[in-house]
Amino acid sequence: MPAMPTPPGRKPRKAAPSRRPLTQDGIVAAAVRVLDAEGLDGVTMRRVAQELDTGPASLYAHVSGKDELNELMLDRVAAEVRLPEPDPERWQEQVKEVAREVRRVWQAHADIARVSLAMVPTGANLLRIAEFQLAVMSAGGVPPAAAALAVDSLGMYVDAESVERAMYGTKLGEGASPEEQLHTFISGIRDYYKALPQDRFPHIVAMVDELTAGGGDERFEFGLDILVRGIASHARP
Amino acid sequence: MPAMPTPPGRKPRKAAPSRRPLTQDGIVAAAVRVLDAEGLDGVTMRRVAQELDTGPASLYAHVSGKDELNELMLDRVAAEVRLPEPDPERWQEQVKEVAREVRRVWQAHADIARVSLAMVPTGANLLRIAEFQLAVMSAGGVPPAAAALAVDSLGMYVDAESVERAMYGTKLGEGASPEEQLHTFISGIRDYYKALPQDRFPHIVAMVDELTAGGGDERFEFGLDILVRGIASHARP
DNA sequence: TCGTGATAACGAACGTTGTTCTAAGCTAGG
DNA sequence: CCTAGCTTAGAACAACGTTCGTTATCACGA
């Protein structure tokens, strides 16, 4: 198709290029909107681009790829985590408070914990949280080596628990309410465990109620309690 | 090319239909072979089918889809976990032994821990491990509710640690040895943390060595110690 | 005021992925 | 020996992340 003059009376190409220019921040904000509405698997380059009325190729000028977009989303969401005023006297309770707060924020944004589990924290908002925990533990008498590894273990625990919890909502249909979903899922598991052969799995069958008990908060709280007790056993008095 | 009569003296279609029929077990075994050689992301329907000299569609007669194949792979691999003879006197040490053993097996099979993290255990070999841990903790005096939640927390910790560990190997190039990969990765993180602004992240910068210390085994052992100490604090004496 | 060059935007396309469709082949039962 | 039902498998579908090459835009020096 050789060069052709544009037909008379035809606009240059597209009607209104009133498109405000793309920015990395705008892209990440759009991605988080999609995340909240459709889950992490719903955050595709195409879907984010669509949210911005453009094509997927346009995003690559501001973001190196999907991985970087994931990390930027996580760090943006991590900004919502509120940290208390450090109080060395209450360091154990404060460590728990921060863990609960991170879990709350992760669960407010669908699957995002999956991203946190699969990366080393480098963003400013994530490091801000780690810094707080290191500070409060150090002030509380936990030796540096123990505090460092404790931050790691705590983060892993919060992430893994949030991932499992989020899974219940996505594996089931999106129809019912979150509590309904959780209950349906748990009942299925309970029935399966109850039907197990008692001679091979006596404890599982006997403890089926304990294994499937707790709305999720109880379970989390218990694991948190275990971790903090273990950490405290390494602190000097 | 319309229907043509087969030339005389020619075998029906393919030279030797010595193709032994597909079985679920054979498919899972092939999938695990691919997993070990190329990682979890390398386990695609096409790749597994290729390993069996067939097409991807043929697998769906024996396996409902990718998710089920993942779970079957995990359970097959879980059969390699060896459990000690239960000894209530040493329950804390035995819980740790099993956790170490599971981690060893997970890490012997690339990314497989990712699957474990994303599902509720239902396979016979996975339940066998949970049954053992419940039994030994119960015999050791841990109350049922605590034991049930402890199994959950322990499993999550082992899975999450294995996933993180496996990630170091896959994010970097596949060229160097595992230790080399780990070292390269850790040094990158250390340099980044060292370059952080000291006024905003004083503890991170000060503890950079502790945060990046431990070949991985130390870190895991420490987290395990924390968890078991916490669990033990719930046991009756 | 007019080019002009760097950069952003984007339509189209490539190579993969999981999965389904549909037709052909094989095997067991009458 | 023939037919019913299951297995096999080639082809195709929709969706994914990413890249290519071209077009449009805008700040700035002549």
Question: If you had to describe this structure to a student in words, what would you say it looks like?
Answer:
The structure is a homodimer of 237-residue chains. The first copy, chain A, has helices at 24-38, 45-51, 66-78, 91-107, 113-117, 124-139, 144-171, 178-194, 202-206, 208-211, 217-232. With 237 residues, chain A is mainly alpha-helical. Chain A folds into 2 domains: 24-78, Arc Repressor Mutant, subunit A, CATH 1.10.10; 88-232, Tetracycline Repressor, domain 2 (Orthogonal Bundle), CATH 1.10.357.10. Chain A is flat. Chain A binds a DNA duplex (30 and 30 nucleotides) through residues 12-14, 17, 19, 21-22, 44-46, 49, 54-58, 60-62, 65-66.
Q: What is the β-strand count of chain A? A: 0
Q: What is the terminal-to-terminal distance of chain A? A: 82 Å
- Low-pLDDT windows of residues of chain A: 1-19
Largest interface, counted by CB within 8 Å of the partner chain's CB: A-B, 58 and 58 residues
- Helix-strand sequence of chain A: HHHHHHHHHHH
At the fourth level of CATH, the homologous superfamily of the largest domain in chain A is Tetracycline Repressor, domain 2
Domain module tally of chain A: 2
Output the CATH topology of the largest domain in chain A: Tetracycline Repressor, domain 2
Largest sheet of chain A: none
The level 1 CATH classification of the largest domain in chain A is Mainly Alpha
Q: Please state the overall shape of chain A, judged from the principal axes of the Cα atoms.
A: flat
Helix content of chain A: 55-70%
Tell me, rounded to a whole number, the average pLDDT of chain A: 88
- The structural class of chain A is mainly alpha
CA gyration radius of chain A, whole angstroms: 24 Å
Give the name of the CATH architecture of the largest domain in chain A. Orthogonal Bundle
Q: Oligomeric state of the chains?
A: homodimer
